Amino acid sequence: MIIDRQQITNHLRYLQMLSKQYPTIQAASTEIINLQAILNLPKGTEHFMSDLHGEYEAFRHILNNASGSIREKIDILYSNTLPAYDRALLATLIYYPERKLEEIKRNVADMDEWYRINLNRLIEVCRLVASKYTRSKVRKALPADYAYIIDELLHTNYDAINKEKYYENIITTIIDIEQADNFIVALASTIKRLVVDHLHIVGDIFDRGPRADIVMDSLMDHHSVDIQWGNHDILWMGAAAGSRCCIANVLNNSITYNNLEVIETGYGISLRPLALFAKEQYSNVDTKCFLPKNPNEVSYRRKDIELAAMMHKAIAVILFKLEGQAILRNPQYHMEERLLLDKINYEKGSIVIDGKEYKLRDCTFPTVDKEHPYDLTEEEFELMEQLRFSFQRSEKLQKHVRFLFAKGGLYKRFNSNLLFHGCIPMNEDGSLMEFDTPEGILSGRAFMDYAENWARRGYYSQAGTPERQFGKDLMWFLWCGKHSPLFGRARITTFERLLIEDRSTWTEKKNAYYTCLKTGEDCMKLLKEFGLGGKRSHIVNGHVPVRSKEGENPIKADGKLIVIDGGFCRAYQPTTGIAGYTLIYNSYGIRITSHEPFAGVNNAIKNNTDILSTTNIFETADSRIKVEQTDIGQDIKRNIEDLKLLLAAYTLGIINEKHR
Fold it and tell me: Shortest CA distance to 516 belongs to which of 425, 381, 451?
């Protein structure tokens, strides 16, 4: 590398700041050597998951087993020396160390011997998963309380006679001073930390399943994660921002699926105001259309279910009003066909949609003014203000949403792959769909950037400003708007599903994106829109469940498009036939794993059962992929060039070394 004085002069201020971190020629040289060595290590393992929908037990299990990667490491070490039962037990111990230890102590007589055997096995597994990283990176991943001891054991040379007793004594002492349980937990944590270098969540953490808040807590504890917002995520983000449209939709979804635990227990949001309002307005009104789906008759009394139906009807009517207001505020959304309350013929009990008249199952809406159908009553307005206050004052919800903004976005470019939840909206001819915005006609990446920017402003702009309102409306549009990149359909049919028997009206036509990407060439055109390309580039998205039982393949377009929504959510599993797809991208290539429904943590701990999974290795690297070929590698190369420039500045005397 030839460096002249002008190069140094052009970057002098930056180099002076860099010299504070590397104050001598020796320090800069050592770091260059270290970084150059890292470039030749195998790339870290990436783990992709999508459409979690609050199914926290299945999510945490797959997070713990890294889509089978941990069992794979155990089998590499012990397939010829341990029976399947012992390998399964060791895997369960890594997944759930505290609870598995409780179960083992009830059944094992000589715990000291058991500790000795399994501590050594765990150390061997830990050594294997740590072998692809620098010692420095491994040290940083170790639990602080046991970092020194684990580091010593991981770098044991058991052939070194002089240290054989030293290492044996470490294990013996751990057992003697009754620290074996804590040490096992620390080793299990380290293995799970090292087996996956980075986690991608390709949208839809919220709704449907029981406890999205528990999923969010787990993600916040993860060492390295990014999130591509799904339409259900942006809905909760809008609710946290105070969007009444989004709040009404959140409540409508939660009551529909009989899932209020996440709101009341998870986020501490009281629904008492809604219950009181519903009982006052709808106690003597037919609510059969609004009964929650699949209520558990054992857990809920009939009166509870009836109250839920009243609450559902109350919030649904408010929802239709608020969405009407949003559509009228934003003509650029071109969603006028969703203005339905003014299309109801109350005398005939019918509605006209797209020029055709349909019989309504229910049109008894005591709070709807026929002359001004989209106006809230005074009581409805007051209720929504109470609910808005509760959503905005939920400390846990706000913490989770700030994390979604910090770690997420509408799309992600990572190691040549393009990740997004729903779609990049397209026309039937394969061209990018254009959207009318105050900033002009936008499409593709430009529209995604625009939408993400305004979603952030909808949350962070000052309350009461036009920018805040516009951003909140944009978040609602992303949730369900016409061909929104997160929704990916021409219309949302909440009204029709609730109130019209004719199922032909329930159809939500998918955006052409889902049919236009047929070949690898089609995908390459879209990847180019986002500045990507090459044989290692792929599109990864979720959102639309893959109907595996009907033979649908998640790997599409000559292997360039990978759809990993396979039905994590139990409500989708009868349709998909499986319980989700996940993706592993390591230094050897890419593999997709399909998962069977999870039987629960208790079953896993008692019987050492894992989620039954089928893995398809569909792309193998010609040679092992190194850090040098990744995004991190490109950053490291730039750092090396900067450090070489600093070395030259020291050598030429432009910057003086600072010896302590």
Answer: 425
Predicted confidence at residue 298, as pLDDT, reads 42
- Beta strands 440-443 and 434-437, pairing class: antiparallel
Rounded CA-CA distance 83/197 in Å is 29
pLDDT score recorded for residue 576: 57
Q: Residue 562 belongs to what H/E stretch?
A: strand 561-563
For residues 258 and 255, what is the distance between their CA atoms, to the nearest angstrom?
A: 5
**Are the beta carbons of 203 and 209 closer than 8 angstroms?**
no
DSSP 8-state assignment for residue 263: I
Q: Cα–Cα distance between 296 and 277 in angstroms, integer? A: 24
- Cα 645 to chain centroid distance, Å, stands at 40
If phi > 0 it is left, if psi is from -120 to 50 it is alpha, else beta; for residue 476 that is: alpha
* Cβ atoms of 413 and 532 closer than 8 Å: yes
Placement of tokens 């949609």 in the chain: 353
The C-alpha torsion from 116 through 117 and 122 to 128, rounded to 10°, is 120
Q: Which helix H or strand E contains 317, and what residues bound it?
A: helix 302-329
* Inter-residue long-range contacts of 277-280, CB under 8 Å, 24+ positions, other chains counted: 277/314, 277/379, 277/380, 277/383, 278/307, 278/310, 278/311, 278/313, 278/314, 279/307, 279/310, 280/379
> What distance in Å separates the CA atoms of residue 339 and residue 232, rounded to the nearest whole number?
22
44 Cβ partners below 8 Å, 6+ apart? 132, 133, 196, 197, 198, 586, 627, 630, 632
Show the low-confidence residues of the chain (pLDDT under 50).
295, 297-298
Strand order in the sheet with 344-345: 344-345, 350-353, 356-359
327 touches 481 (CB < 8 A)? no
The C-alpha atoms of residue 123 and residue 72 are separated, in whole angstroms, by 16
Per-residue pLDDT tens for 448-506? 999 999 999 999 999 999 999 999 999 999 999 999 999 999 999 999 999 999 999 99
Q: Do 93 and 87 touch, CB atoms closer than 8 A?
A: no
8 A C-beta contact, residue 288 and residue 309: yes
Cα–Cα separations (whole angstroms), residue 217 to 13, 158, 214, 262, 263: 41, 40, 5, 13, 15
Amino acid 90: pLDDT? 94
Handedness of CA 123, 126, 131, 133 (dihedral sign): negative
